[in-house]
Amino acid sequence: MVLSSKGSTVQRNMSSSSQWERRFPLSPPVARGQRNSSRSVPDMDPFPFPTTTQRPAQAPASALQQLQSSVPARQLQSNRSSFFLTERGNSQFISNGNAPSQVIVNGNDVQKKHSQLIATRQTKSSGQITSSQTRIERAPSNPSMAEPKISAGKSKIEAGMNDDGQLADITMTEAVQYLSSGDVNYQHYGASFIQHSTYSEDKAKQEVLRLKGIPPLVNLLKSPSPQVQQTASAALRNLAFKDAGNKEEVQRCGGITEALALLRDTDSTETQKQLTGLLWNLSSADSLKPELVRSALPVLTETVVVPYTGGVDETNKNLDPEVFYHATACLRNLSCATQSNRQAMRNCRGLIDSLGSYVQDCVAAERPDDKSVENCVCVLHNLSFQLESEAPALFSRITALAGTVSRANASAETGPIGCFSQQSSKIQEQESHFDYPVMEEQHPKGAGWLFHSKTMQSYLSLLRSSQREDTLEACCGALQNLTANQGIVSRVMSQNIVQKLNGLPEISRLLQSPNPSLQKTAVALVSNLAKNQRLQSIMARQTFPDLVGVLSSWTKEGTESDDTLAMACQTSHSLLMKEPELGKRLLSNNLVNSLNDLSKNRLFPKASKAAGVLLYSLWSEKDIQSFLKKQGMNKGSFVNDITSVAHRSVQVVE
Predict the structure, then answer these.
(1) Which residues contact 594 (CB under 8 A, 6 or more apart)?
(2) Which residues touch 648 (CB under 8 Å, ≥6 apart)?
(3) Which of 97, 145, 586, 610 could disulfide-pair with 20, CB 3.0 to 4.6 Å?
(4) PANTHER family from the xrefs (predicted)?
(5) What pLDDT shows up at residue 651?
(6) pLDDT digits (tens, 9 = 90+) for 600-639
(7) Are 559 and 553 within 8 A, CB to CB?
(8) 379: exposed, middle or buried (Cβ count in 10 Å: 0-12, 13-18, 19+)
(9) Three-state secondary structure along 474-526?
């Protein structure tokens, strides 16, 4: 069944255009970021923000005048120079394969790891469903969906509050002036007031921006006082929460550079949390992603991701799980970016290996719902988008082996060689049937992990055990991307998933998911797998019943998308023609009536056409037609004005 021209492609772009940020709440319960997609928002736990600095005494008028007139904007200078990476240098490398890194962690109970393993937003394309040769690719996972903001778990006086629990009786103008004081107590008090004010009222963010309070806050990141550094980081984090203007201002005055420099130097867990939370919030701004990929990517990888997962020596084993979660959330946002940004992340030394290692270790430890695992698999999913076309050198081993097999068969007088089926006559089938997983690299590096069987096994394990829908969709989407093309690579990946890893049971159950986005991704993956003729028999037995369930129940739920139903019709037709005897047992009156209703539904233009073609094709098969007549069904249910028009339109396209 063909719904558009033969050989045309369907490519899925971004799962969502939403961004994920977080701020630091004043006190539980934690405010959740607003999401602008159907995806679920990860849980957000409050962060303690301890401090010992006392509120300074009220400054006399003369002191305030001095603050207004004589203190330079960047008065505090530390003994470390400004830090800005223009090149990754040793922190990145070009490997023979891209290495995605997405991992799940259980709350704060995260163990360190020691093995390997979506910047402009893209939008969903209007995919057209074609024949069994359709290319259906799924782009990066949606970026982080809720910005973090921060609160301070301090006493009233320490937090810049009075005895009634209200913010102290100073103005925002005074708080901003305090930031440029030579007294660290004033600096800390001003930063604390701004932190709390910007958490409570969005208008406070605009006031700080108007008063030019962000540059001195950035300057305080270089303060010799750890407490001032921490409070300034927290205030900047809240200022950047869901405020595009403040994000731009932080970047304009060097905030990314200073935050990264401090992240490299500080040993304070709380400061690390605030800095990685700030970077997470900044990463949701498309305009900042190029700089963040250039400068923050290597720093986060070297100082957080690799040490936390045990990818290098045993240093930094005291990193907090929340720091790793923030860092991977930032990387998740950056990975849903442009091709150049994806390539930079694929080539970042140790990134994909560490993320993959973390995922594998969490799977082994039976922690599939760890929130950092979700971030990790989303990064890996995003980096698998258009992988074959953007990094063809990664697949040279597969293509070389396939070429050898093809030449051997071309020169042979008799049937196929080695492990080929005796009934194989098509070069496509011959090429796709060599045992690649036996020959693949046992210890790949970097991007090579993105399509390795161990990584795909982790995806399938998560599909079986995780309850987090974003994790499930990312795993399913990564497998969809790896099987999206027409050539030998996608056929090998498909056989690996179905025959070597026995992944159909995990994939098939997602076809009945009540989540429309997850269901659509699962149907698209099944459609990709069904392109491989060698897999159609086993898929007919294991997957066809679930596809029939989608088509039989669509009118009851009403949540399926046009693309989902169209792909389900197309794939059902392929499997039915491959195993007609099995198909006969599933061709019930309920299914036929549902397909008829769908063919008449103009709200689903692609699905209605696909249903019409499927019905017409069923009656055209003499053996199936005979069966249908015995069941008391008549020709009018299959061949009528609607289905005939659909059939003719396909014939014209062909």
Answers:
(1) 551, 552, 553, 554, 555
(2) none
(3) 145
(4) PLAKOPHILIN-1 (PTHR10372:SF3), PLAKOPHILLIN-RELATED (PTHR10372)
(5) 73
(6) 998 899 999 999 999 999 999 888 999 999 889 999 999 9
(7) no
(8) buried
(9) HHHHHHHHHCCCCCHHHHHHHHHHHHHCCCHHHHHHHHHCCCHHHHHHHHHHH
> Higher-confidence residue: 399 or 506?
506
What percentage of the chain carries pLDDT values higher than 90? 57
Distance CA 85, CA 345 (A): 15
Q: If 0-12 CB within 10 Å is exposed, 13-18 middle and 19+ buried, where does residue 236 land?
A: buried
**What are 513-563's pLDDT values in tens digits?**
999 999 999 999 999 999 999 999 999 999 999 999 999 888 645 567 899
Contacting residues for 150 by C-beta, under 8 A, at least 6 apart: 23, 24, 25, 47, 49, 195, 199, 234, 237, 238, 274, 277
Helix 562-578 to helix 544-557 angle (10° resolution) is 150
Four-residue CA torsion sign, 529, 535, 540, 546: negative
First-last CA distance in the chain: 10
Calculate mean pLDDT across residues 67-76.
Answer: 32
d(CA 447, CA 111): 24
Burial of 618 (0-12, 13-18, 19+ CB in 10 A): buried
- In whole angstroms, what is the distance from residue 629 CA to residue 291 CA? 66
Residue 550 · residue 519 · CB < 8 Å: yes
- Give the separation between CA 171 and CA 345, rounded to whole angstroms: 44
CA distances 652 to 84, 552, 569, 570, 646, Å, are 59, 29, 20, 18, 10
What's the gap between Cα 407 and its chain centre?
40
**Closest alpha carbon to 514 in 567, 456, 564, 462:** 564
Q: Are 35 and 44 contacting, i.e. CB atoms less than 8 angstroms apart? A: no
In this structure, the number of other CB atoms found within 10 A of the CB of residue 439 comes to: 10
pLDDT value at position 650?
A: 79
For tokens 């690799």, the residue is 306
Determine whether 406 is exposed, middle or buried from the number of CB atoms within 10 Å of its CB (0-12, 13-18, 19+).
middle
For 385-442, what is the HEC assignment?
CCHHHHCHHHHHHHHHHHHHHHHHHHHCCCCCCCCCCCCCCCHHHHHCCCCHHHHCCC
Q: How far is CA 144 from CA 24, 309, 339, in A?
A: 16, 21, 19
- Tokens describing residue 195: 């932190």
Round to whole Å and give the CA distance between 292 and 177. 30
What are 362-420's pLDDT values in tens digits? 999 999 999 999 999 999 999 999 999 999 999 988 888 766 554 444 444 444 333 33
In degrees rounded to 5, what are phi and psi of residue 106?
A: -95, 100
| Residue 641, amino acid | D
Give the angle 578-581-587 at the CA atoms, nearest 5°.
Answer: 100
What tokens does 266 get? 């500080």
Name the average pLDDT for the chain: 75
Comparing CA positions, the residue from 41, 44, 103 lying closest to residue 365 is 103
- Residue 195, amino acid: Q
Q: Which amino acid is at 494?
A: S
Q: What is the mean pLDDT of residues 53-66?
A: 37
pLDDT at 339 over 80: yes
In the chain, count H helices and then E strands. 33, 4
Whether the predicted pLDDT of 123 surpasses 50: no
Q: How many CA atoms lie within 13 A of 476 on its CB side?
A: 30
Output the CA–CA distances (angstroms, integers) from residue 395 to 139, 400, 447, in the order listed: 19, 9, 11
